[in-house]
């Protein structure tokens, strides 16, 4: 649709951060990568599709922020004094940041599609997508929703064992 083309039209590279299991540091790596790219002068966004464990808002100390609407969808939360990192997370949509999200696949998939199509990212050099652990519905939905766009690639986070 036109809205999808519009909201991701200004994003030059999309990077998925994945792992086969939880607790390996995907969210930490996504956050550190975003900060490093920002420090290199890049415009960066983070899309946190880890619906059951949205930790990036807390890592960036913006867990009390709210998401607002504009004509083209949701306005992401801008992080830091320079507002150089745009962040969208389900953590901003929960009543309390520690609330558990217990949803069946179709509802999760619908939210992921909405995150891809309805967030007004503006112009970004990189959009980093922090995914949940494993290889589930959410990953398939995310990749399918992003398929029309130029994906830079994926980073697979593993542990030594």
UniProtKB/TrEMBL annotation:
One MF annotation (Gene Ontology) recorded for this entry: ATP binding
Pfam families for this protein: ParA (PF10609)
The UniProt record lists the keyword NAD: no
Xref: PROSITE patterns: MRP
SUPFAM superfamilies linked to this entry: P-loop containing nucleoside triphosphate hydrolases
The entry's keywords: 4Fe-4S, ATP-binding, Iron, Iron-sulfur, Metal-binding, Nucleotide-binding
GO biological process: iron-sulfur cluster assembly
Domain of life, source organism: Eukaryota
Keyword 4Fe-4S on entry: yes
GO cellular component: cytosol
Signal peptide, first to last residue: none
InterPro entries associated with the record: Mrp-like_CS (IPR000808), Mrp/NBP35_ATP-bd (IPR019591), P-loop_NTPase (IPR027417), YlxH/NBP35 (IPR033756)
PANTHER family (UniProt xref): CYTOSOLIC FE-S CLUSTER ASSEMBLY FACTOR NUBP2, NUCLEOTIDE-BINDING PROTEIN NBP35 YEAST -RELATED
Protein name in the entry: NUBP2 factor
Organism of provenance: Tichodroma muraria
Gene from which this protein is expressed: Nubp2
């Amino acid at each position: 649709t036109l809205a999808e083309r519009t909201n991701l039209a200004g994003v030059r590279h999309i990077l998925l951060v994945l792992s086969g299991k939880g607790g390996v540091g995907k969210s930490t790596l996504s956050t550190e990568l975003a900060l490093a790219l920002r420090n290199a002068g890049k415009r960066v966004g983070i899309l946190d599709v880890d619906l059951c464990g949205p930790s990036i808002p807390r890592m960036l100390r913006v867990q009390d922020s709210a998401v607002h609407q504009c004509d083209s969808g949701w306005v992401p939360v801008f992080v830091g004094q320079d507002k150089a990192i745009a962040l969208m997370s389900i953590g901003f949509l929960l009543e309390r940041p520690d609330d558990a999200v217990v949803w069946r696949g179709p509802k999760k998939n619908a939210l992921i599609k909405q995150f891809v199509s309805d967030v007004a990212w503006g112009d970004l050099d990189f959009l980093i997508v922090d995914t949940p652990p494993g290889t589930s519905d959410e990953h398939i939905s995310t990749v399918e929703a992003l398929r029309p766009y130029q994906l830079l690639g994926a980073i697979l986070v593993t542990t030594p064992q």
